[in-house]
């Protein structure tokens, strides 16, 4: 009797367990189906906001007001140091560079200057902010100029929808070209070649004297050819050395990436294979350092994706978890590089963004909700979002740059 009871109980428990597992698996499958359906719907229906900055000039203390004060001297300098903001239709590749300073400093004695490079996806180009108003690069430069009391020259190069592979293949060539363009040294490639005519004796019989002359001409021609080759090689070496020495070095490089890698991996069904991101990020950093200098501080900000209202649940939870994983990889890479050589900045909390608004000329900020920091596309920051985030980034970067100067 006891044995029968035990058998019945075991059978019931087994049946209940199997039923529970089956229910959990069914719910899990349903959840994954809904999540994937939401992702595919957003992938094909989402249209990024088209507006992005068309100007790249900001002066210390004025960029936050959304205008640029210009006079004849400033205009003349801008014409001399003209740089372009490119928005290509196919690639949506943007490049802009300017110097953040005050008008008085431009007229006065030249002060110390630092250079900041911003590289990455659409966040680097300022997608989401209104035309001719402050974007991330401009505000970071303005705030660093205030915190460090130096002139900040900055350049931002980015591509809409860029994953790490796109940054390597599309953005870095543009950065490399821009980095060398303004100080490239032009050397003449003229080899100074000369033409020679050889006369032949058609008297019907060869003389020893003519043979000697022809032999000497051949030897002279060969010697001149080798001499021209050596001169050409020397000119090439001089050009390479000049190009290398004229490539402007950066004090800090801010790399904005990760969101599009999350999207790519999710849509390709590789959400659990994240090691490639870490390795690829390390390779991209090496490539960037080859362009801007090995001493540049590498800054890896976490993405504030939690303020984006576009993603519905349960897709939102999955996206945020993946974003956290990618940010963990960024932090790991920064730790590998070392404290003085790299900086990981945690994704700002909602309260941190509110505090940044309050500290830098905004209202109290406490009543601002998550969606109010984003543009109408539901993903990219708006003017207020860029301003708050940029001030947070600049404060962290300034601390490290100051510490590096002391040490």
From TrEMBL:
<feature type="compositionally biased region" description="Acidic residues">
    <location>
        <begin position="209"/>
        <end position="220"/>
    </location>
</feature>
<dbReference type="Pfam" id="PF00657">
    <property type="entry name" value="Lipase_GDSL"/>
</dbReference>
<dbReference type="GO" id="GO:0004622">
    <property type="term" value="F:phosphatidylcholine lysophospholipase activity"/>
</dbReference>
<dbReference type="InterPro" id="IPR036514">
    <property type="entry name" value="SGNH_hydro_sf"/>
</dbReference>
<dbReference type="InterPro" id="IPR001087">
    <property type="entry name" value="GDSL"/>
</dbReference>
<comment type="similarity">
    <text>Belongs to the 'GDSL' lipolytic enzyme family.</text>
</comment>
<feature type="region of interest" description="Disordered">
    <location>
        <begin position="178"/>
        <end position="220"/>
    </location>
</feature>
<protein>
    <submittedName>
        <fullName>Uncharacterized protein</fullName>
    </submittedName>
</protein>
<feature type="compositionally biased region" description="Low complexity">
    <location>
        <begin position="181"/>
        <end position="204"/>
    </location>
</feature>
<dbReference type="InterPro" id="IPR051532">
    <property type="entry name" value="Ester_Hydrolysis_Enzymes"/>
</dbReference>
